[in-house]
């Protein structure tokens, strides 16, 4: 009976850890996305330059089509 209880607790803990890891991954992605937005609103030159390069790449690709 005790082994069964320990197995159940281990499986439950494993699912909880997995769920928490997924939540941490999501929050890290959201933090990164929000930081990019903050940098853009501040006018961070590297972000503005990167956006300019991406726009140019889009224009180049559209021109090729």
- Give helix % range: over 70%
**Total count of strands:** 0
Give the mean pLDDT: 87
Structural class: mainly alpha
Helix and strand element order: HH
Distance between the termini: 68 Å
- Which stretches are poorly predicted, pLDDT < 50 over at least 5 residues? none
- Largest sheet report: none
Report the C-alpha radius of gyration, rounded. 23 Å
How many structural domains can be distinguished in the coordinates?
A: 1
Key terms:
mainly alpha, 2 helices, 65 residues
What does this structure look like?
By secondary structure, this protein is an all-alpha fold. It has one domain. It contains two helices and no strands. The radius of gyration is 23 Å and the shape is elongated. The termini are far apart. The mean pLDDT is 87.
Gist?
With 65 residues, the protein is an all-alpha fold. The chain has 2 helices and no strands. It starts with a helix and ends with a helix.
Structural topology:
Elements: H1 2-42, H2 45-64
């Amino acid at each position: 009976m005790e082994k069964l209880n320990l197995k159940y607790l281990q499986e439950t803990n494993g699912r909880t850890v997995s769920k928490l890891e997924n939540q941490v991954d999501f929050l890290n992605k959201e933090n990164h996305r929000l930081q990019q937005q903050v940098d853009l609103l501040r006018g961070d030159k590297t972000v503005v330059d990167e956006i300019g390069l991406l726009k140019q790449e889009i224009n180049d690709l559209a021109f090729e089509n």
